[in-house]
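Minutes, methods subgroup
Present: GH (chair), OT, SY

1. OT presented the first of two proteins processed in the latest run. Sequence and structure tokens recorded below as shown on screen.
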Amino acid sequence: MAREHIGAMEAPCPALECEDGRFLCGLIRRPGHYMALPNDAADPMLGRLFAQALGVGRGCDSSDP
């Protein structure tokens, strides 16, 4: 997802945020910051869209062990 929207090409994702020992998706929390938008007015709407696109709350779908 970040590769499509902020040009992230390597790991770890530059939108990966750590707070209180937890890793969180910055594209969900502060999308305007990572997309270089002029302000954070669209953050709530964009964050919901990114969360939906990433499947937040639907469990992990990774094929990795």
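2. SY then presented the second protein from the same run.
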Amino acid sequence: MTDEQAAPYGKFNEEPIRPELEHAVTAYAREQGLLRPTDPDIGADRIGAGLTAVVSVKLDRPDFEGATHGVLGNSEVRDCVGQAVQDHLGRWLKEDPERAAAVIDQIVQGARRD
């Protein structure tokens, strides 16, 4: 299977990682005092403006759904990818606090302007 067959038109299904992005970034921002207590949690739509992720998964039997078969349907992969994103992003945030603070500050300031 080629990359184009696996992800037609370069599309990526973000759904499996959105909640984990929100959780990891919001938890870190609150732990570090980068969010005020009255600030709402940081939504994945805001986080997308400050982060880029590359996730590669190889499956023996991929299960694609949708009219164009462009969405990966393997639920065990969704869970695994989501947990990996949360774990690795959380670790990166803690290991590189200066860059993490800069990214989160950009996200928070953008949310406050809106």
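Chair's summary of item 2: The CA atoms of residues 33 and 101 lie 10 Å apart.
Next meeting: continue with the remaining queue.
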